[in-house]
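in:
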């Protein structure tokens, strides 16, 4: 690898987090060693801050944290520095699709996290929506929903697993968020190694100087990456970081 990497961007689910929902000691050790060598390590996840702060705390201080696929960016003191909301009329249409097809939904809003099992109260428009999602086991139904969503140019449509659909406002993705982080840190995207496994990671893997797909990544992600590391159950993140550290 010939790139001069100065920032490592890490997805969580399916990447840094293993199938036991934990972060391995080897991964933690590799991240801490990277930080000791002066590299920036930034979590870049579809999760909200409330669902990833415990991991961020375990990894020590970071300059920024990208959450909700770029819907929110926080600084190292967990202060909000960027927020991107879905338009209320767009959420109304997403909700109508959920109702029409009887879909399982989940969401990140400024007011909290809601899903089919933990529904919100009141009108859809009464909330500030950052991300809207469906989980659809049926391939045919999922394709119908994707076809409908792709008729709009208002949405950034990705996934974090083969059965779900994640919807952010158009232009809001992990790559766009990392470009802002790089600007704030006076770095270039060419100096970033981005590691992920799902469709919501493709943008940052494509735009980074060195894009890495996990061994367990979806095939489209592997095709987009410069390199494929080991799986999330084989400490693939540590394996990728060690490749960078050898280059320093």
């Amino acid at each position: 690898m010939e790139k001069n990497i100065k920032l490592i961007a890490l997805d969580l689910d399916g990447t840094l987090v293993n199938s036991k929902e934990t972060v391995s000691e080897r991964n933690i050790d590799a991240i801490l060693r990277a930080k000791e060598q002066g590299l920036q390590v930034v979590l870049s996840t579809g999760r909200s801050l409330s669902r990833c702060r415990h991991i961020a705390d375990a990894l020590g201080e970071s300059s920024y944290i990208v959450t909700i696929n770029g819907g929110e960016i926080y600084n190292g003191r967990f202060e909000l520095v960027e927020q991107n909301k879905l338009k209320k009329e767009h959420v109304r249409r997403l909700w109508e699709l959920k109702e029409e097809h009887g879909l399982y939904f989940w969401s990140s809003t400024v007011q909290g996290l809601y899903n089919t099992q933990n529904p919100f109260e009141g009108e859809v428009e009464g909330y500030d929506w950052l991300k809207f999602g469906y989980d659809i086991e049926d391939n045919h139904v999922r394709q119908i929903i994707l076809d409908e969503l792709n008729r709009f140019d208002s949405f950034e449509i990705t996934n974090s697993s083969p059965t779900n659909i994640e919807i952010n406002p158009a232009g809001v993705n992990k790559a766009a968020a990392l470009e802002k982080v790089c600007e704030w840190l006076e770095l270039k995207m060419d100096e970033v190694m981005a590691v992920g496994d799902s469709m919501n990671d493709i943008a940052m893997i494509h735009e980074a100087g060195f894009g890495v797909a996990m061994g367990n990544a979806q095939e489209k992600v592997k095709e987009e990456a410069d390199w494929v590391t080991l799986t999330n159950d084989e400490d693939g993140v540590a394996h990728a970081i060690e490749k960078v550290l050898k280059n320093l």
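note: The two ends are 11 Å apart (CA to CA).
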